[in-house]
Amino acid sequence: MDIDQLKQHNGRHLWHPMAHPQAIRDTPPDIIARGEGSWVWDIDGHKMLDGVGGLWSANLGHSNRAVRDAIVAQMDTLPFYNAFRGTTHVKAIELSTRLVEMMQPEGVQAVVFSNGGSDAVEGALKIARQFHKLRGQKDRSKFISLRQGYHGVHFGGMSVNGNSNFRRAYEPLLPGCFHVDTPWLYRNPFTDDPERLSEICAELLEREIVFQGPDTVAAFIAEPVQGAGGVIVPPASYWPRVREICDRHGVLLIADEVVTGFGRTGELFGTRLWGVNADIWCLAKGISSGYVPLGATAIGAKVADAFLSDTSGLGAVSHGYTYSAHPVAAAAALATFDELVRLDVVGNAARVGARLQERLRRLPQRCAFVGDVRGIGLMIGIEMVTDQASRAPMPRTSDIPARVARAAYRRGLMVRISGPNLILSPPLTISAEEIDFLCEVLEASFDEVGASL
Ligand code: PMP
User: Fold this and answer.
1) What is the DSSP track for 222-237?
2) Are residues 290 and 424 in the same domain?
3) 286-338: per-residue pLDDT in tens?
4) In terms of Cα–Cα distance, which of 248, 158, 163 is closest to 203?
5) Smallest CA separation from ligand 1 atom 15, residue
6) Strand runs (DSSP E) across 37-85, as ranges?
7) 295 CA: nearest ligand 1 atom
8) Which Gene Ontology MF annotations are present (predicted)?
9) Are residues 149 and 297 in the same domain?
């Protein structure tokens, strides 16, 4: 197909995630053709810094040679074999060992592999319910999660998702899922004081657990830093409080680290930011630098022990996929872990992330329709408003966010728009010079759209 045919055919036959098929026909997406380091090229040869990082995923940048070589070598050795009950393979064993070693500070004992983030969440929710059954608490089936949270698109994850856009078309969802307020400093009806907000939101969680009946609640699931919801960083005391509350009521804590895992926040795992251990972690994206689909549900000691000490048979993991621990994905992940260390990727994310945060936090002074800039490490959300003083939200129908994104694209920067938010999650290997370029382009793009209003 030539370039024009490709553009035409995309809208005809390909239904894209999170988009109306008709909208795709009317406004065709950009066709990305090549990637190298922090950069991507579209099919017309236009070069852009990848501010999206694939989709919070290309943590090592594009076309990392070591990961590519590991994938090719695995393809030449064993492209696929299953890791169900009767068989296993070398890469599955090596990867589980390596991941458990990496998560020793967390006390992780075992991992269940899957194909991506939604799968990792599904595994976590199922294992949480099974854990309580194994301990004789069969009524503990409910889940509590945060408004604005994102946990993927399967029925379990969708049911704990905190954004009705992902839920409405598919209701009714899983019964027994309840939502409480996110400690979101910029938008909450309570207070502008982070410490007070943390107290209030923790109390709301506890009240919900008590209201439901603690003996009916299986787990609380949340992202250490909310990503898709607009990059919402909780106050530092929130997660420690949540941990205490979960312990007080025998509720498991599930950390959805699909975005925050493997360095994005400047810490290897998001729970380390808050000095808190979860009981179960959901991992994907950066685990393989996004080169091949892979997800993992990591299981802490308390949960693992309940399975290992079971003699009834109920502790069998009646869950898993044909492609759980796919050898090519496992090889990619092992090479990714080597590169994380060799390139000091997490240290770089912390260093250049601080540079990015510091400079972009000044955007509201420069641009009247930027209300809030928030984030940590190499995840950042820029929320657009119609009025800074009243924080009046930018209407969903406004074309301003898309115009900023187009201006950035023309200037050589790929960004992502999610509602009123412009979201950045560049590769964790991005250099300080590339960060400066990103900031210059973004400032110029906001200036351009601001001047046209
Ligand atoms: N959890 C979180 C926190 C996510 O951000 C995402 C995807 N962005 C998912 C789960 C779902 O992952 P996937 O798209 O790989 O299924």
Assistant:
1) E-SSB-TTT-BPPPTT
2) no
3) 999 999 999 999 999 999 999 999 999 999 999 999 999 999 999 999 999 99
4) 248
5) 117
6) 39-42, 47-50
7) 15
8) pyridoxal phosphate binding; transaminase activity
9) yes
**DSSP E strands: which ranges in 68-125?**
108-114
Query: Within this chain, do residues 130 and 179 fall inside the same structural domain, yes or no?
Result: yes
Asked if 121 and 84 sit in the same domain, the reply is yes
Q: Is the CB of 125 under 6 A from ligand 1?
A: no
pLDDT tens, position by position, 429-447: 999 999 999 999 999 999 9
Which pLDDT value is given to residue 27? 86
Separation of CA 158 from chain center: 14
Handedness of CA 142, 295, 61, 103 (dihedral sign): positive
Cα 419 to ligand 1 centroid, rounded to whole Å: 17
- Residue after which a domain boundary falls, among 342, 364, 399: 342
Q: Give this prediction's pTM.
A: 0.98
Q: From atom 1 of ligand 1, which residue's Cα is the shortest distance away?
A: 151
- Which residues in the chain come in under a pLDDT of 50? none
Mean pLDDT of the chain: 97
What is the domain count for the chain? 2
Q: Coil, strand, or helix at residue 14?
A: coil
φ, ψ dihedrals at 381, nearest 5°:
-120, 135
Q: What letter represents residue 167's amino acid?
A: R
280 beta partners: 254, 299
Measured CA to CA, the distance from residue 350 to residue 268 in angstroms comes to: 10
Structural domain of residue 406, as residue ranges?
31-60+344-452
Q: Say whether both 336 and 359 belong to one domain.
A: no
CB-ligand 1 contact for 223 (6 Å cutoff) = yes
User: Where does residue 23 fall: left (phi above 0), alpha (psi -120 to 50 degrees), or beta otherwise?
Assistant: alpha
**What are the structure tokens assigned to 178, written together?**
């309840």
